Amino acid sequence: MVERVALLRAPNPSAMTLDGTNTWILASRTGEALCIDPGPAIPAHVDRIVAYLRENSLVLHAIALTHGHPDHAPAAPMLAAATGARIFAHPYSAAVHDDVLNDNQEMRVGDLQLVAIDAPGHTLEHLVFYERESATLFTGDTILGTGTVVIAPPGGAMRPYQATLRRLLAEFGDARTICCGHGPIVAEPRAKIEEYIAHRERREAELLAALAAGPQTIPDLVERIYRDADMRLWAAAARQMLAYLLALEGERRVSAVRLERPLTEREHAILNPDWVNVVGAEHAPLVEAELGAQLRLDTLYEYSLNLP
Ligand SMILES: [Zn+2]
After folding, report:
1. Which of 113, 158, 225, 261 could join 243 via S-S bond, C-beta 3.0 to 4.6 A?
2. Of the candidates 111, 140, 108, 137, the residue with the CA atom closest to the CA atom of residue 126
3. Distance of CA 31 from the midpoint of ligand 1 (Å)
4. What residue spans define the domains of the chain?
5. How far apart are CA 92 and CA 171, in angstroms?
6. For 162-180, how does the pLDDT look when each residue is reduced to its tens digit (9 = 90+)?
7. Please, what sign has the CA dihedral across residues 160, 162, 164, 170?
8. 5-200, what's its fold?
9. How far is the CA of 251 from the centre of ligand 1 (A)?
10. How many A from CA of 294 to the centre of ligand 1?
């Protein structure tokens, strides 16, 4: 019998993608299929998806994208051309697509019932999917099988992300499994979502505790909080920190004062590293998309706590 939910992992392992992007093929009992995140534009991966469909006598009806990042969406037009399936994405998606899926919109393919959930945070055009019959949540880059997710401006935003996690816990905490965009299947969804919520709260508390020592720039904060971490992680940490600081500034819990001096070389290396040097030319475009590195941080701000 054909597997209800099958995983075909793309051959694109890296620091950003763990073992590679997870492409999910959902099969109805009557031979229709859905694909979630066809992955990067690697012809061999598309060929493998097409071969899997053929071997299992499945007809692909729809390709659903969690978000438009280069490791999730670019194979969609190739797979659509090979199968005739239509491509569905978030209304804000800049990826190639035929139709949009709004919040709570349901797609029926055979006995598959896929619900789209608007899930801003990692990007503002992110969808999570829930398949009712198998009680499976497909989280893309909102929740990963291992580790945590990058939330970096301008594509990512922290408070929307935290609201998304709380909504997933409230509405889908009883899901049977989570099939993530990267990493292994999660067997205990509720515990995983709770862990993700707690992690963000812990990081924010750390940041506030560091700011209690006095006004600091993002490079100051990174050097203080990530002292013991691999320096290659600092640029990612800096951009995550920016996501928290933007949220706290909006809530008037933190103030930012612009410093009228150029960045030192060390500050520049933390805020705007040369990604080709750090991760190599092959992975640089994905890292830049994930970390919002198109946003150059050439101005320094000093952040301080607003006392209640
Ligand atoms: Zn992503």
Report:
1. 158
2. 140
3. 30
4. 5-200, 213-305
5. 23
6. 999 999 999 999 999 999 9
7. negative
8. Metallo-beta-lactamase; Chain A (3.60.15)
9. 27
10. 15
What tens digit of pLDDT does each residue of 127-175 get? 999 999 999 999 999 999 998 898 999 899 999 999 999 999 999 999 9
Distance 121 CA to ligand 1 centre (A): 10
Expressed in angstroms and rounded, the spacing between residue 212 Cα and the centre of ligand 1 is 33
CA distance 244 to 159: 8
Q: How close is the Cα of 132 to the center of ligand 1, in Å? A: 24
As a whole number of angstroms, the longest Cα–Cα distance in the chain is 67
Label residue 14 by pLDDT band (50, 70, 90).
confident
Encoding tokens for residue 18?
């763990």
Cα-to-centroid distance, 84 and ligand 1 (Å):
26
